[in-house]
Amino acid sequence: MGAVTACLACRSLKSKCQRATVDETCRRCSRLGVACESIPRRLGRKLGSKNVPKDGDGKDKRSRSHDDRSSSEASSYRPTKERRLSHWQREESPAEDGSPSPESPMSDDRPTSPFSNMLNILSRVANDMPRDSKPLGAGESPSLPFDREKFLDLYRQASGTLDPDPFMGMAVLEQGLDQLFGGQEQDTDIEQGEEGIYARIDQPRRDLEPHLDPVTNGLITEREARDLLSVYWSRCHPITRILDPKIHTMDYMRATSCGLFTSVLQVAAQCLPVSQHSAGIVARLDNHIDTLYQIIARKGMQSLELCQSMLIHNTYIRANKQHQTWPNVSMSIGMALETRLEINTLPAYMFDDPIYAHISPERKRRNIQRFWLVLTDSDKKMSFIRGRRPLLRDNVIPSMLNLDKWYQEADALPCDVVSCSSYAFQNSAATLQRNIQRTMVSQSAFTFQMHMKRVDDTLNQWRKTWYNRLSRDDQIRAEHDLRATRFALLMTPYEHRLNTGDMKEIEHDECLVAGLDLCKDAIPFLGGAVRNITPGRLYLVGYVSLCTLRIMDATSKDEGGHTPDISVFHLSILSALSSRLRDIKAHPNIAVIGSVLGRRLLCACRKVAASTLGVAMDVPTPISEDALNLLGQGMPGPGATDLSGIVRGDVPESLGGIGSLGPLDLAFSFDFTHLGDINPFLENDFTDFSSIPFGSLPPAY
């Protein structure tokens, strides 16, 4: 019997195909219930009958000559060494018994691709077992029960060692069969603490536990919560500008984020008239929001509403938490990137989550875009006051949004124009600050007039574009921020010269006028009807006033300095500002910041007056230890700088420096310790001001 071509399944396993003819089904395929198919053998080209010459009898001459040659070779046969057959040639030899294999009971619609490894074999056994439409009874068995031993016999191989399974293949196969045909059903329920394993990384993980809701746990009543929401929309929302009143209702916030709901209530409670009742509400909400943010950080909760919550909390954060302002911004950025909050594309979960079902797609999109505007604005404020790079390096907002038209769209809010103008303002100020810093590092020659012109041109360009688009209240706030930022930018390259006496007269006069102008207007600004008091603005006013006082102190000792009358006039403006800061009618979370800054300013004003006029002055009571502990040291924030120079409880007799004040007496500083970060390859070390070779700079500088 001639060789029979092996089927595809046997050839893939390189095993012997046990069948007599090509039309039959081999035993292995019949046992496993797979399709037994084969490809015809093609051993070479055979010439057709028309190409072979025939003899007279009509028989091929080639076949006749082949028979004659075979008979002659048989007569002269000599035994030779048997040719060694390859593995695939041995596999294609016919079966020994030649008995036909039974037909496969499986249907013809089985997949034809052969399996290639044990995992595929196990999956085929699991998937290809015949299933009846009716469930089996207690005493019934499947039509074709699985024979475990016969199945394993197919893959047992003879071993030349004492170990029958040297490669652990059969052990793995037997273990898989035990699990596959085990009678006990495995429990697949998610147990407590396993939710994070099954949850998607880019999906919201909400803070909706019952004990986190301030109304559910009894911190405030539902009526008090609704009253506080009214206060938030009327007093706080024009400043925070991040929520949409038509989206963020009380029910929506409680259903999406307890952190957002608590932040809104806590901020609104701080804006209530000062009383024992409001102080008690703020104290309870302060403790609750601290605990809530610890749980959020520990459990890795994230959502758009939590990002909004942190930005609202940052705007009115209390004094002893000012060091957490920029970390909160960075956490919001991380959550936004993790949950795929794109500027122009809604995340997929907003289409499936029933919480967002009542919101139109346009409002969802604008809600995310408004969040990115406020987030980028906050990031740039933090980086500007520290002289650092912002965390969001890529300036993607202008490329994604047309700010000139975004606030005029159909679903725009009245505060959207403020968000656009504030972003444009902070972007211009940050760009100008970086250019000044680069110039300082490269030590290029430029005059103060050129520097002031560059600052004024940049700010005036913003004023022409955005100022007239704002409401009257927003114009008052924008004018204050514009003057404070202008003073900070003017002082950036010259502040360190206050300690060396190298500041020229024109630099003194221009910076002094800019500082006093802001301090004069800040007195009605901080006490007016418009809600303007935030920690960020208090710190910025504190920086401008103290830096202005340092300019006055340095000027008083120069030749040709101001007359005593002019000095007293200037000092009276700063003293009036200190009185306003000390008497701010706000909750102690904010009032303590103004109180400490005002007392420090008044103390410094009296010292300068004593030095200038030559008369003795009563120095106010030093700042208490408790007030310093509330403020903390080096509290960053919008407009915040280092207060580590505030001496704890004592005012030294001699402070050194050019005048009566020294660098540690008024330690608000936009210093140059950050200049090494601009270009780390520079050899200059700007962390020590004495190492700056100012003598090599042009005199006009």
From TrEMBL:
SMART domains listed in its UniProt record: GAL4 (SM00066)
Domain Zn(2)-C6 fungal-type: 6-36
Disordered as annotated region, ranges: 46-116
Record-linked Pfam families: Zn_clus
Compositional bias (Basic and acidic residues): 52-71, 79-93
Any single Gene Ontology cellular-component annotation: nucleus
Domain of life: Eukaryota
Primary subcellular site in the record, as a coarse category: nucleus
GO molecular function: DNA-binding transcription factor activity, RNA polymerase II-specific; transcription cis-regulatory region binding; zinc ion binding
Subcellular localization: Nucleus
Keywords: DNA-binding, Nucleus, Transcription, Transcription regulation
CDD domains named among the record's database cross-references: fungal_TF_MHR (cd12148), GAL4 (cd00067)
Protein name: Zn(2)-C6 fungal-type domain-containing protein
